[in-house]
C-alpha cells in the first residue's frame, strides 16, 4: 500500500480495488452492536482543516474513532494560523506531537504534497484548492459499485462546475483507472483549460448525454470561487444544466443520480430528484465513513 493519498492518480487499479474491498468489509461492521475496531489503537490522526467542511471532517473523525485511533481536530480559525503561522511550522508542531496520519484540507492546490515532505506520518488529501479530493472519488466509486455491481464499462456523466471542482478531477482519474467511461458536461466557461488532455469526453448538451448514462453526477455550482459571470443567470443555468424530473425520466431504468454535497437545491438539482429512489446522496455520506476507515486502516499498516 502507498504511504500517502495525495491524488487519485496515486492509485492503480489493484490498489483502488483493495481500498473499495476493504471499505466493504468496514461497512459490514456497521450492523454490529459495537461498531469499534481496535485496529489503530495507540495511533494519532490529526484533522488539519484550513477550509470549512462538514461532511469530510466529521466523516474522517468518525472513521478514525471507529478504528480506535486518537483524533486531534485542528481548525485554522482560532489557531496560530490566524496569527500568521506557516503550513511548515504547523506541520513541524504536528510532527512533534507524534501524528501518525494528517488529514489535510487547504485552499492552496498542492499543499498536501508540500506537507508530505515535512511530516514522517501519512498524509491524506481531504481537498486542496480546486485540485483534488481523492477520498471523495473513492466513496463515489464505492457507491456506484454498490448500486450497479461494477465500475468497468459504466458511462458516467459529470455535470456542472467542472472548472472549480476538485471532486471532478479526482473522479475522472479514478474512474478511468477502474475502467469506466466519463463524459464531462458543462458550459464552455466552466470547463478548465487543458481539459482535452483529461481521460474523459466533453459535451455542452446535457440532454444528449442523459439517455446513455448509467450514472449522472451533479456538481455544486461553487459561487464562492467565482468572481465573474460564468453563465448568464441562475435560471438559465438551471434550465440547461440543472437535473430536473423530466431529465431523470429519460435516464435508463437502472441509472443513478449522485451529488457530492452540499447541494444548491433548485439550481443544479431539483429537490424531487435529490429525494428520489434514484438518488444516492445520503448513501454517499454513509459510504464516506467506510471508505475513509479503509484508507486510514491501509495507510497505517493494516493488512488486507
From TrEMBL:
Its EC number is 2.1.3.2. It catalyses: carbamoyl phosphate + L-aspartate = N-carbamoyl-L-aspartate + phosphate + H(+). Pathway: Pyrimidine metabolism; UMP biosynthesis via de novo pathway; (S)-dihydroorotate from bicarbonate: step 2/3. Signal peptide: none annotated. GO terms for molecular function: amino acid binding; aspartate carbamoyltransferase activity. Heterododecamer (2C3:3R2) of six catalytic PyrB chains organized as two trimers (C3), and six regulatory PyrI chains organized as three dimers (R2). Belongs to the aspartate/ornithine carbamoyltransferase superfamily. ATCase family. One of its GO terms (biological process) is amino acid metabolic process. SUPFAM superfamilies: Aspartate/ornithine carbamoyltransferase. Residues 3-145 form the Aspartate/ornithine carbamoyltransferase carbamoyl-P binding domain. This is Aspartate carbamoyltransferase. It is an enzyme of class 2 (transferase). The keyword Hydrolase does not apply. It comes from Dactylosporangium aurantiacum. It holds the Pfam family OTCace_N.
